[in-house]
Structure formats: C-alpha cells, structure tokens
Amino acid sequence: MPGPFPGMDPYLEEKALWPGVHQAFMTFVWGTLNERLPERYVANLNERLYIDEPNRSIIPDAAVYERSSPGGRGWGNPGGGASSAGVAVLDEPWVLETPLEPIREGFIEILPAREPARVVTVIELLSPSNKASGTTGREAYLAKQDEILKSPAHLIEIDLLRSGEHTVAAPRDALARRGIYDYLVSLNRSTRRIRFEVWARTIRDRLPRIAVPLLDEDPDLVLDLQPMLDRCYDLGAYARRIDYGNDPVPPLTRADAEWVDLLLRERGLRK
Predict the structure, then answer these.
(1) Which residues make Cβ contacts (< 8 Å) with residue 93, sequence separation at least 6?
(2) For residues 2 and 233, is the Cβ–Cβ distance under 8 A?
(3) For residue 44, what is the DSSP state?
C-alpha cells in the first residue's frame, strides 16, 4: 500500500533510510522503462563509484597516568614538559580517522538496443552527498553533470531531498521566481541546452508525470513517478520502520508542520 502522503514522504529523506530508497526507486524506474520503451531502446541501470572520506575526531574521555614519585613530574602529568630523566613528554594530539568509504549511486541510461555505446538519455536521482557542499560526492556529481551537458544526451535530474545545496542544472534564481517547491525534476534536452523543463512539487503534491525524451524521430515517453515511490514504500516496509510521532528531518515550515500533523492524525499515525 502507498504511504500516507500524496507525493513524496519527507520521512524517507532520513539519512539511514535514503540509501535503500534510492536503490529501490531507481530499480523500479529502470524496470518500468524497459517494460514501456519501444523495442529499439533499452534502459541500463548503471553505477557511479567514488570514495568518501568522512572525518571523525576522536578525543579521549579519560586519560591514565603513571603516578610519579613525590615532588616529581612523571609521565602524563598535564603540566609537565619533561620527565625526571629529561625525556620530553608528548603533548596529547587529537586523532583523526578518515576511513575510505566506497559510495555507490545508481543512475539510468537509455540506449539504442543495438548501439550500447550511444547514450540517449541519462536519469539521475540525487543523493545527500551530491548536495553536500565541499564533498567528494558533490564534486563527482557536478563533474558528471557537466560531462552530460556537453554531450548529445538528454539529462533528467530527480531531487527528492529538501536539504543541501541546489544541484540540478536548472538555474536556482529562475526557479525561485516561479514559486515555492520542496522537490524538483529537471529535464534538459540536448537539442536546446538553454531551456529547462521543470516539475516542481511541495510535500502536499503528488509526484509528477514527466517526459522522457528519446531520439528525435520518436515521441517522448511519459513516466509517472508516483507509482515508483509507492512501490518503494510498500516493498521496503517503511510503514513499519518510520515513527510518524516524531518530526521529519530536515524540519518543516510551521505551515507544513501543521498540515502534516493533521494528515497523520487523520490516518491514525499520530495521536
């Protein structure tokens, strides 16, 4: 069964849930495209791999010192600069660990079935690392975005995350002049790079039916994103995993928080 929201469920943006949402959503889009594309095309589910380096500062909660002799300044004495033997005592450092974490992000390419090296359309679903300023994930995504925009391929970007930097290729200032939104789908056709087709939605709106462009001689395919999310919510058992008694992260505006509270109470998910 679908989730309680008419469109995107803001609780699915939670960091621990999003990787599963991302993978399932793109898998359902991939399968739907291959069911509906003309026979001369195929959708390929591909993967981008990069290494993330999340820094963690490790500061000890307690230190163990060897007791010095009376009047002496022994090892580990916070005020001592040298031992009785004249050996310098190391000032305690902060230890920073930067484990190398491989991050995998799926994206979809639509190809002519007989020409696998020719990319017609690329479909991206943004992840939190793509929208986090100064991260490897953002740099990798923007480099890929630039590469596609310089190629003959169409680009579709789906942003279902309210937090983070503006990342889709459609200009932020132009979007802000058109209205308020929480989620975006941006389409840039290779035949007219200065033009963007954007489907903007709030948490109160159903996800859109979007155009998926093919080669010039073929009409666009219409792709309904809402059933993809509904299947993801259902098969991922998110109804059992989400505590709707808490507020979503990032926080909502006051007006949206009141709307969400009423919606969840009507559905029996909040007291």
Answers:
(1) none
(2) yes
(3) E
Provide the edge-to-edge strand list for the sheet that holds 121-125. Answer: 41-52, 101-112, 121-125, 154-159, 183-188, 196-201
Dist. CA 183–CA 205, nearest whole Å: 10
Gap between the Cα atoms of 260 and 270, Å rounded: 10
How does residue 177 score in pLDDT terms, banded at 50, 70 and 90? very high
| Helix H or strand E segment including 110 | strand 101-112
To the nearest whole number, what is the mean pLDDT of the chain? Answer: 87
For residue 262, what are its two tokens?
């009423």
Are the beta carbons of 97 and 132 closer than 8 angstroms? no
Task: Tell me the whole-structure pTM to 2 decimals.
Answer: 0.82
H or E, element range at 259: helix 254-266
Closest CA to 149 of 169, 130, 177, 164: 169
Domain limits, the chain: 10-53+97-266
- The reply to whether omega before 2 is within 30° of 0 (cis) is no
What pLDDT band is residue 51 in, cutting at 50, 70 and 90?
low
Cα(129)–Cα(163) distance, rounded to whole angstroms? 11
Nearest to 121 by CA among 112, 130, 133, 134: 112
pLDDT at 95: 65
